[in-house]
UniProtKB/TrEMBL annotation, chain A:
Organism: Oreochromis niloticus (Nile tilapia)
PANTHER family (alphabetical): PROTEIN DPCD
Pfam family name, one: DPCD
Protein name, entry field: Protein DPCD
Homology family: Belongs to the DPCD family.
From TrEMBL, chain B:
Encoding gene per record: RUVBL2
Role description: Proposed core component of the chromatin remodeling Ino80 complex which exhibits DNA- and nucleosome-activated ATPase activity and catalyzes ATP-dependent nucleosome sliding.
Family affiliation: Belongs to the RuvB family.
Lineage: Eukaryota, Metazoa, Chordata, Craniata, Vertebrata
Protein name: RuvB-like helicase
Claim: Transmembrane is one of the keywords in the record: no
Length: 203, 467
């Protein structure tokens, strides 16, 4: 398969839009069976949630994996409590972008700022967060840059620590900014179904 | 009133912590651990729980090699012989020698007759359960060194247990909340602080990799086989490719389920559409060509095969021709009898065209020496000690009545012996149970003598249809 640019992949996908709850919700169904769902704030046009779901090789439907946004840990979690899950006192990792930068927040990290070190690994194209007290370690990539095949830039990375939260920011490059604006324009053209309950097909 | 409460409290015992290590019950064939062949496929007289039947065991060994090679599909074998000559034992022996990775599906001929599913559907499901697909899949695992396990049992003894598990790598540390199932499997694996473990997040399977090197100097009693491993690096949660074997039937079920919330209400699988099966077949072939998956043809064992009817036999004829077909092993104890669903007589109750495709292994009745040997093995399996005379008497009973009846007497005689506080079963105990329980021949005799006094004896003329 020839390397297809991300915008072409997006264009070829089947999109469904819905305006609900003050959010513009878009569902993408890609040709390879993967699904992506995005939610944008209607007023500020900020990306609130982006999540992925795909089937495993055997055909089992996976659960939604969040790329951007906060998971809604609700009563569903207690259903699976037979197994293992992370304690609530552990650091919580989430991504929440701003207009100009990708941003990751790790809550529940009560160590002083000088414990943390954040660096870029160019060979693996990821950001690494380390702690000198060996309590927290995280390796993650920037899917947006990977999809558009853009290089990583050391100077774009910065981090702050306040209120038990470590905030890592990476300034969005020019290409991403223009791409996101174009995408948003396209998405606004999509006819979203009217606000309110959508007719749900029952069997 | 208060004293009564106190007594009550004293009597509510703390329930015993039950051992979760697997307890196996002793079944009719639990003493069989293999076919008892040497490397040259020559049968040993007594080995792996098998006694005698040398010719049929050698034949089964050849079939076993064919299955292990995995190249030949759609062969069928029939094991024929009188009742109690070890037909099922040979099939079990094959299953045991194949190991856990080759699928072995066993069913009895009567199992396929169900009102919820057609006969052929039940047969196709059985066929597809006997074909394994070894495939790579990515799963999320947690890998780290155990820092601390803390399990709280509620003071009342009942209710959910709560637990916490702290795991670390060289770079980080995380606390996990444990569910009930997880606590059980952790205590079953006897995981303790200092062990390096992996947990499959989806299935909850725990694997102990060894003990951490940092604990090598602990003054702990350790077995010689304790392995020391490095504490893992990097993140605790990783995505790893694992190879596992699933049966075609399992893939069918996954892909035929009603999607969405309706799946909650459809617990049973019901019939699987043939389109789904065709799709899966095509996909599996594609995977095989791409090198992503490997097909492992297994064994389908149908016991009491004479219980199948004409439609099933013609289905088998057709199914054996498919290249995605397992090796079929059937067993029957019938001679020339009516084929179910027709008025034709045929050997073993199997139509001639199917018989023509079969390799037939015959089993012969056991000799006295072999019977004695089998009874000895069963005594060991059932933990009953037998005196030499009692053993001889039991062997005589086995020869004159049936092997199964003699085996039944072992545990009953053992019980009688224990009740009189004896340690070894004597001839008296055998005599006692022999008089208490009738064997088949004596029971028939008794019936002939006293049938007039039984209820409904007026219907005695109606012949019983057993075929």
């Amino acid at each position: 398969m020839a390397v297809q640019s991300w915008s072409d992949v997006l264009k070829s996908s089947k999109k469904t839009a819905l305006i609900h709850d003050g959010k513009r919700k878009i569902h993408y169904l890609f040709t390879d069976g993967k699904e992506m769902a995005e939610e944008y704030d209607l007023k500020t046009d900020e990306l609130i949630v982006r999540k992925w779901r795909h089937k495993s090789t055997l055909g089992v439907q996976g659960s939604w994996l969040l790329e951007v946004g906060e998971s809604l840990a609700g009563p569903v979690a207690s259903l699976e409590s037979d197994m293992i899950k992370e304690n609530s006192s552990n650091p919580v990792f989430m991504r929440k972008d701003t207009k100009t930068s990708f941003q990751w927040r790790i809550r529940n990290l009560s160590y002083p700022k000088d414990v943390f070190s954040v660096s870029l690994d160019h060979s693996e194209r990821c950001i690494i967060i380390k702690t000198s007290n060996k309590k927290y370690y995280k390796k993650f990539n920037i899917p947006d840059l990977d999809r558009s095949q853009l290089p990583l830039d050391d100077s774009a990375l910065s981090f702050t620590h306040a209120n038990n939260t470590l905030i890592v920011s990476y300034k969005k490059p020019e290409e991403i900014l223009t791409f996101e604006q174009e995408l948003l324009k396209e998405l606004k053209k999509l006819k979203g179904s009217a606000e309110g309950d959508v007719d749900c097909k029952t069997q | 009133m208060i004293s009564l409460l106190l007594i009550q409290m004293a009597t509510t015992k703390v329930p015993e912590v039950r051992d979760i290590t697997r307890i196996e019950r002793i079944g009719a064939h639990s003493h069989i651990r293999g076919l008892g062949l040497d490397d040259a496929l020559e049968p040993r007289q007594v080995s792996q729980g098998m006694v005698g039947q040398l010719a049929s065991r050698r034949a089964a060994g050849v079939i076993l090699e064919m299955i292990k090679d995995g190249h030949i599909a759609g062969r069928a074998v029939l094991i024929a012989g009188q009742p109690g000559t070890g037909k099922t034992a040979i099939a079990m022996g094959i299953a045991q020698s194949l190991g856990p990775d080759t699928p072995f599906t066993a069913l009895a001929g009567s199992e396929i007759f169900s009102l919820e599913m057609s006969k052929t559907e039940a047969l196709s499901q059985a066929f597809r359960k006997a074909i394994g697909v070894r495939i790579k899949e990515e799963t999320e695992i947690i890998e780290g060194e155990v820092v601390e396990i803390q399990i709280d049992r509620p003071a009342t003894g009942t209710g959910a247990k709560v637990g916490k598990l702290t795991l670390k790598t060289t770079e980080m540390e995380t606390i996990y909340d444990l569910g009930n199932k997880m606590i059980d499997s952790l205590s079953k694996e006897k995981v303790q602080a200092g062990d390096v473990i992996t947990i499959d997040k989806a299935t909850g399977k725990i694997t102990k990799l060894g003990r951490s090197f940092t604990r090598a100097r602990d003054y702990d009693a350790m077995g010689a086989q304790t392995q020391f491993v490095q504490c893992p690096e990097g993140e605790l949660q990783k995505r790893k490719e694992v190879v596992h074997t699933v049966s075609l039937h399992e893939i069918d079920v996954i892909n035929s389920r009603t999607q969405g919330f309706l799946a909650l209400f459809s617990g049973d699988t019901g019939e699987i559409k043939s389109e789904v099966r065709e799709q899966i077949n095509a996909k599996v072939c594609e995977w095989r060509e791409e090198g992503k998956a490997e097909i492992i043809p297994g064994v389908l064992f149908i016991d009491e095969v004479h219980m199948l009817d004409m439609e099933c036999f013609s289905f088998l004829n057709r199914a054996l021709e498919s290249d995605l077909s397992p090796v079929l092993i059937m067993a029957t104890n019938r001679g020339i009898t009516r084929i179910r669903g027709t008025n034709y007589q045929s050997p073993h109750g199997i139509p001639i065209d199917l018989l023509d495709r079969l390799l037939i292994i015959a089993t012969s009745p056991y000799t006295e020496k072999e019977t004695k040997q089998i009874l000895k093995i069963r005594c060991e399996e059932e933990d009953v000690e037998l005196s030499e005379e009692a053993h001889t008497v039991l062997t005589r009973i086995g020869m004159e009545t049936s092997l199964r009846y003699a085996i039944q007497l072992i545990s009953t005689a053992g019980l009688v012996c224990r009740k009189r506080k004896g340690t070894e079963v004597q001839v008296e105990d055998i005599k006692r149970v022999y008089s208490l329980f009738l064997d088949e021949a004596r029971s028939s005799q008794y019936m002939k003598e006293y049938q007039d006094s039984f209820l409904f004896n007026e219907t005695q003329t109606a012949a019983m249809d057993t075929s």
